[in-house]
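Researcher: Go.
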Amino acid sequence: MKQLGFYINQSLCTGCKACTVACKDKNNLEVGINFRRVYSYEEGTFIRQSNSGLIPNIKAFYFSISCNHCQNAACIPSCPTGAVVKNKQNGVVTIDQDVCQGAQLCIKACPYGSPQYNKKVFKSNKCDFCMDLQEKGDDPVCVAACPMRAIEFGPIEELRKKYDSVNQIKGMPSGAITHPNLVITPHKDAKLSGS
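Model: Structure:
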C-alpha cells in the first residue's frame, strides 16, 4: 500500500484561502462546512520604549489543513456504525454516506477537526482526497487551486524523503496522537522549540 499524504509549504502560504474555496465549490459544501481550512496564528506585543516609541514584537503566519488521513485515525474506531474506513490501497480515510448515522463521534475524536457535520442531511463528511479527480489523472482541487504552490500530495514516504518529516507546528496537536500523513515546511515563526 502506498499511503497518500499532503505536503504543506507553510512558509509560502499567504492565507488567500483559494484551497478552501476550491474544495468548498467542488464538494458543494453548506455555509460553515469546510473540508480544508486556513487558520491564522498571531502572537506577540508592542514593546514601549523609554522615548515613548513602540517596537513591534509580532509574529503571524497562516496554515492550511484538511484531513491528514492519519495512520492511526481516531475517527475510525469512534464511529459506531463503521462508516469511517481507511482504504487499504492508498490509505485514504473516507466516510460512507450511506452508512453514516450522524452520531458525530468522529468529530469529537479527531484532534484536527477534519470531519464536518451537515445539519441538513444529519451526517458527517470530510476530505476524501479528491479520489474522483485523481482517478482521472487530476490533482486534488486544493493542490490545483493554490496560487503559491504551497500544497503538494503524493505517497507520504516520498514526501518525507523530499521534505523531511515535520508534521506539527505551533498551535497543532501532537503528531504522536494519530500519526498524520502530513509533511510541513514550517514558517520561521511556526517552528516548535527544538525543531
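Model: Residues 19 and 25 are 10 Å apart (CA to CA).
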